[in-house]
Specification:
2 copies of one chain form a homodimer. Chain A has 16 helices and 16 strands. Chain A is an alpha/beta fold. The first copy, chain A, folds into 2 domains: 3-64 and 372-406, Urease, subunit C, domain 1, CATH 2.30.40.10; 66-354, Metal-dependent hydrolases (TIM Barrel, Alpha-Beta Barrel). In chain A, the strands form 3 sheets. Chain A has an 8-stranded mixed β-sheet, covered by helices on one side. Chain A has a 4-stranded parallel β-sheet with strand order 5-6-7-8. In chain A, strands 9-10-11-12 form a 4-stranded parallel β-sheet. In chain A, helix 3 packs across helix 16 (422-437) and helix 13 crosses helix 15 (388-395). Chain A is globular. The relative contact order of chain A is 0.16. At the A-B interface, helix 3, helix 10, helix 12, helix 15 and helix 16 of A face helix 3, helix 10, helix 12, helix 15 and helix 16 of B.
Chain lengths: 439, 439
């Protein structure tokens, strides 16, 4: 008598991203409720389990869902609004004014639905968001059926989201309390950056993080301007500055880290800080190229983030992974660095670990939550096939993602985000853009 | 009474890539036989012409077909065969031995069909190929309905393609003669590189090019190894070396040019040499990053090439364009360089000009051959839309290409390469890969 499960996912290649480097060929994954029950050879799995639904098969690769460790999801509504500008002008001249005018629960809900649609299509199952009105984000993300870590942004100046630092903290703490037991939403705290938050503000964020056992999500050492500014204000470069106040530990996920010194890379390694490498945003805004190879050599956990779509201009981790795996070979002068498998680890398992969810998601193994992606290999750009890791990293595109499962539920089915009203999302985005364009 | 045309292509945005920067909104293109009859507002076009077939409409962008100015199409069969290696090891340890063993008419025909399938899917209408057995390539390309410039490779050492330099030239000249009047195939001559061809061989190639009025396609200054080797052999860096023998003029399309000195950039500009910037290949093989911003500033015509799929690992000009438009902002430290529109010019019109076909294709205007692409804008990653150039360059993916027209004929229709047997292509690729894997 076979055991009933909800879904059996079959793959010609299953990349579990566990310590086993060899892919499981002609494999299958049995999923019941939200969890992976067993992973193994297809014949063994189908002999043991009866799946209510059977997906994939020959011509499919099954991989853990991609993890986007730094984004501002709702900023999709500013995609392409202002390009080919330096970060500071782009932010202060265009993005912040538009945010001041339009940000609110309705904007964030509508925009986050679009962002979820885009990310699900790109095989992202988990993302780390820093923004405001995160209640509205949470509502949209839960509707889409995605998993996310949401950090309410903290600033030392007033915005439409809050008037004082304390008000930001009150909202953040309230959010953390209300979402502490959620199945899909994991709360976090997000002090914006060393140039917008005082050391006292960071300290308060760290205390809150410790009290509620959540991660701290911040921008760090993104531009040369920031390095100069922080040095001028505090006498230390950004990483040393935070470290000198005891503000770096393994709870911290630092986005960008484009300009750490050698000494600062050592500090990041010692403190167990995780990095979200936002390559395409850093390139497009001319912020620079993070020393990823050096950070990896010193065992700093580097993961991939898209940043907001306003600076990138998409939410596509496969594209970040592919560009990074190629670029750092040229930058380091060594074509053997950042192998295809390491790049895929950064985009999946290490991302989950950086968000404090390494025991729950990030790899395909029995007992973990079922967040996984089926990639259709029957595409000319994936033909022929000698090495599946190489294909996923160097040749596959997000459009090859056919099915996405989050928490044991199918959320993307052949291009359709099954929980979302796609026509309504397009309609709302267009309506909002007409207003934003007129700003 | 309306005038009959074969196809009317409608677009919410038509990017003609002529001197008019503003896109034609709610526009249409009338096509008869192989040519564009008229471009204008949709209402004017549909009042004047009756189209046998009407494509596109609201939610579509219409752009000239992408031009891939440097590839070795048949190398798709080696895609992902050997990764994460330096160029020299990769070439001499893996690619050349595999080529020696398998290259021939059947291999090149079968592999080129796959390459055409991949390129048509990615919106490429014209490519510049350097390889051997170009008769077989031509046959496959004509079947697919694409346009290509084919240069028979010339080397100063024997391979499976020819035994002596003279034999290479005989084959090349024979090919040029036979294809001089072809509708889709434009012959060229392709001396491989300064480290594999003597100045005498280049001279002979230039004479042949002049005799038959064809372009000269070569690799140039790709790696630091090449710069050292050529300096050792000839006492000059690669560009100066060729120039010192009078071998550079506006017929020459030089692929890579990663390591030109300032002086050499001036030489390239003075001689009117066009460059094929193969960014992803240069990154992945750790060859370096070409000084594209400087070349553009000095009015060198820079275009995009994918290189072969064995080193990239795909044939996707949209991806090259997007990566380059972002990367050179970071490398130059100036986020205003390589604007979206300039990047799109490099990928279309300038590519056609570099191949000597600027009067025939590369832009959408009356009288030109109808090589164009419809991009479906109804995608989450292209929503909302403020600036069409930004979207095409920074956000669109090759999977957004829905329809491709070459020489007035539809060659891609919603993902189907209409002239190709796609199942047969997958089957053959798999069969060949089983042999190649065993090498």
């Amino acid at each position: 008598m076979k055991e009933n499960v909800d879904i059996i996912v079959k793959g010609e290649y299953i990349l579990t991203m566990t310590d086993a480097e060899e892919p499981v060929t002609n494999g299958a994954v049995a999923i019941k409720d939200s969890r992976i029950v067993e992973v193994g050879r297809e014949d063994a799995i189908v002999n043991k389990y009866e799946g209510q639904r059977v997906l994939g098969g020959k011509g499919y690769a099954v991989i853990p869902g991609f993890v986007n460790t730094h984004t501002h999801a709702a900023m999709v509504y500013f995609r392409g609004l202002a390009d080919d500008l330096p970060l500071k002008d782009w932010l202060e001249g265009h993005i912040w004014p538009a945010e001041q005018k339009y940000l609110g629960n309705e904007f964030v809900y509508d925009a986050t639905e679009l962002a979820c649609f885009e990310m699900i299509r790109a095989g992202i199952t988990l993302f780390n968001d820093m923004y405001f009105f995160e209640d509205a984000s949470a509502k949209a993300i839960k509707k889409a059926g995605m998993r996310a870590v949401l950090g309410t942004g903290i600033l030392d100046f007033p915005t439409v989201a809050a008037s004082t630092t304390s008000e930001y903290f009150e909202k953040a703490e309230d959010f953390i309390k209300r979402y502490s037991e959620d199945e899909l939403i994991v709360p976090a705290i997000a002090p914006h950056a060393p140039y917008t938050c005082s050391p006292e503000t960071y300290k308060r964020a760290m205390e809150l993080a410790e009290k509620y056992n959540v991660t701290v999500h911040t921008h760090l050492s993104e531009t040369q301007w920031e390095v100069e500014e922080i040095t001028k204000r505090y006498g230390n470069t950004p990483v040393k500055h935070l470290d000198s106040h005891g503000l770096l530990d393994s709870r911290v996920l630092a986005a960008h880290c484009v300009w750490p010194t050698e000494e600062e890379i050592d500090i990041l390694a010692q403190r167990g800080v995780s990095i979200s490498h936002c390559l395409e945003s850093n390139l497009k805004l001319s912020s620079g190229i993070a020393p990823v190879t050096k950070m990896l050599q010193k065992a700093v956990r580097v993961t991939f983030g898209t940043d907001g779509a306003a600076s990138n201009n998409d939410l596509d981790i496969m594209s970040e992974m592919s560009t990074a795996a190629k670029l750092h070979k040229a930058v380091s002068g060594d074509p053997t660095v950042l192998s295809a498998r390491e790049a895929l680890l950064m985009a999946t398992k290490w991302g989950a670990q950086a968000l404090g969810l390494g025991d729950k998601v990030g790899s395909i193994e029995a007992g973990k939550l079922a967040d996984l992606v089926l990639i259709n290999l029957k595409n000319p750009h994936l033909t022929p096939l000698y090495d599946i890791y190489s294909h996923i990293v160097y040749s596959a595109k997000s459009s090859d993602v056919e099915t996405v499962i989050v928490n044991g539920k199918v959320v993307l089915n052949g291009g359709d985000a099954v929980n979302l009203d796609m026509e309504e999302i397009f309609y709302k985005a267009n309506q909002w853009s007409l207003k934003i364009r007129k700003r």
